């Protein structure tokens, strides 16, 4: 309940800067659309990409962008966590008798990511129609799970990045490699990056679990245990558990930055 | 006769001096941010790897696909982009200058006996060159060390390499000329975000930083050729790869110089126009 109050507050303050809001939404949608346009142009020239079709790649792209924009919208507070630490505002959150995670989540709500979500949704719909898949109930569920799982996994990465701020105070640009970089790398099917990168992004940071593994199931290219491919989004969500522990450990050791 | 000549020489020196000083101050200042540079280098290198793998996958392991530029050229193009990104991106803005406009502190700068447009343009150019000076070498060295299909190769001959450097500097000036219009817009809208975000994505796309211009559809390439966008990064990168050489390179660099001058003059006029209607409200 208190979370919705936070959101209402954020939305009200947003309403004071309406033109900026629309500018940002437009800029964000353009970024997302430009990336997809370049993917379209590449497939226009080459027709396939190492055995992947245009619709398959488009689905990867759409799933990643939708998941990432939802996570950024809701959990921006963790993504820009160094700001809370540097300003000392985090100390104030610690003093309040409310759940800490909830307060950090409520500290920022980026409705501007809506633009990307809409563009991503449009691409997803386009990809789903051109994939040549009969959309039975189980496949629709897998598709929805893909996006949900993506949101949870990106959230886990945000938590890790935030936990690192307890040590470094300043936000580390290296974290961007796993957030923005992860988004970039996962917007094409992961196997094209070679075995090492594929393993890393399947077993360490499981971006593959919400994107190309279930995709293989959807298009019927999963060999062996098809059910395992279908359930991979759920398995990928487990990633958030160790991340939450790291975050908790970070909070416990936190000794303010002084003010 | 010669006395007149020396006098004009010294006046020119006096006129140019403040802008050269601005360039030097800004350049030395930027060199202090070494930690940021190291972080930037690792990110640039990672993204370079992602792009190179992606293009290699499209080319399907074959080095030459009919009707498209060679994979080797595209890979060199990518690494040059990662190494010299800071010189050519249009979204890199000086937030100090934007703040000066919005907060009104620009009034102090206007009191000085210098041309504001030239002062700011030299400052932006210095920022670009200095940020790159710190970053480009490690990225390029790593890119040269990578194994054959993924690494970068030297330019085909010494001439191409030399023309590349000149053309890259000119390209950076084109970028400065274009980004000066963001400050003009900020004078009008008084909003820091708006103008910057609007040019962001579309400008990246048009300069060939999202997908190389030679890989775009022909109609789009023809349309872009009429704008200054391909002369920012695409031209220098293609000169490096030997894709544009000899007389063609000379002619293209002529057009590049034309854009530097045209953007400079129109930007200067636009600056004068907005400054004339600027009202500073005390403070």
What is this entry, summarized?
The complex is a heterodimer of chains A (259) and B (283). Chain A is an all-alpha fold and 259 residues long.
Topology, element by element:
The complex is a heterodimer of chains A (259) and B (283).
Chain A: H1 2-15, H2 18-46, H3 54-79, H4 81-87, H5 89-95, H6 100-106, H7 114-130, H8 137-168, H9 174-178, H10 180-186, H11 195-204, H12 212-218, H13 226-237, H14 240-253
Chain B: H1 2-30, H2 34-59, H3 71-88, H4 95-103, H5 106-111, H6 116-145, H7 158-189, H8 192-206, H9 218-224, H10 234-241, H11 246-277
Report on this structure.
The complex is a heterodimer of chains A (259) and B (283). Chain A has 259 residues and is mainly alpha-helical. Chain A has one domain (17-253). Chain A is built from 14 helices and no strands. In chain A, helix 2 runs parallel beside helix 7 and helix 8 packs parallel to helix 13. The two termini of chain A are 31 Å apart. Chain B is an all-alpha fold. In chain B, helix 3 (71-88) runs antiparallel to helix 6 (116-145) and helix 3 (71-88) crosses helix 10 (234-241). Chains A and B meet through helix 2, helix 9 and helix 10 of A and helix 2 and helix 8 of B.
